[in-house]
Amino acid sequence: MNVASSKLTRFILMLLVGAGLAGIQGHAARAAENATSEVLEYHGNAARSGLYVVSALTWEAARHLQRDPNFQAEVAGPVYAQPLYWHLPGSTRALLLVATEQNLVYALDSQTGALVWKTSVGPPVPHSSLPCGNIDPLGITGTPVIDDQLQALFLGAMITDKASRAPRHLVFGLSLKVVGPPVPGVAACGPWGVSVRTEREFMWRPAIPWEPDSGAMVRPCFI
């Protein structure tokens, strides 16, 4: 099994975990309940709890779990970012949003794995252009985030600048409202406080942090 398909498999299984969490109290439990219908950011919520509640997943039901042969998905990996799960407003249809190191973003039908659309945010950076690291090529590593009110996905990517051919860190926004592949828009440049000359020495591994009340991106951490 390749990296991309194994990541998708683990994500689907992750959505089925949590029947024993019903007794957990507090914010983490409420966040887990909200995450049952959608997974909009890394580990389901800003607390990164990773708690998912599926009430139908009883001990008896778990005994009969098996791989769905009707779900077939193909993406050009490798995939390090967690896939996200988003419901189209006013529809029973849901999408799996998968971002890869090839700087490709895929929208897959959550029931069948069929490709709904895919788009590229730019050419990734080959390892030969970087001073260190073991990801080749380097593109989208950190998990994106979905703003449900804006119906937009935001992600950080390492791209090869078409003019200078130098590595660049950029934050992109993708509208999920459109029918068909969205056109990436540059939301911000980074890393903040680091010169373009040294950008190739940094990479964006953490998931994008998001402030849901203000719809603002928290200053990310580059390592």
If you had to describe this structure to a student in words, what would you say it looks like?
The chain has helices at 3-15, 27-34, 59-62; strands spanning 84-87, 94-99, 104-109, 115-120, 145-147, 152-160, 167-175, 185-190, 210-211, 216-217. It has one domain. The longest helix is centred in the N-terminal third of the chain and has 13 residues, at 3-15. It has 223 residues and is α+β, with helices and mostly antiparallel strands. It contains three helices and ten strands. Helices cover 11% and strands 24% of the residues. Strands 1-2-3-4 form a four-stranded antiparallel β-sheet, with no helix packed on it.
- The total beta strand count reads 10
For the terminal residues, how far apart are their CA atoms?
Answer: 30 Å
Q: What is the number of independent domains?
A: 1
Largest sheet: 4 strands, antiparallel
Shape: globular
> Major sheet: order of its strands?
1-2-3-4
Strand content: 15-25%
Binned, the helix content reads 10-25%
Helix count equals 3
Q: Sketch the topology as an H/E string, one letter per element.
A: HHHEEEEEEEEEE
What's a quick, concise take on this entry?
By secondary structure, the chain is α+β, with helices and mostly antiparallel strands. The chain has helices spanning about 5-15, 25-35, 60, and strands at about 85, 95-100, 105-110, 115-120, 145, 150-160, 165-175, 185-190, 210, 215. It has one domain (about 5-65, about 75-215).
Topology of helices and strands:
Blueprint (H helix, E strand, L loop, with lengths): L2 H13 L11 H8 L24 H4 L21 E4 L6 E6 L4 E6 L5 E6 L24 E3 L4 E9 L6 E9 L9 E6 L19 E2 L4 E2 L6
Antiparallel strand pairs: 1-2, 2-3, 3-4, 5-6, 6-7, 7-8, 9-10
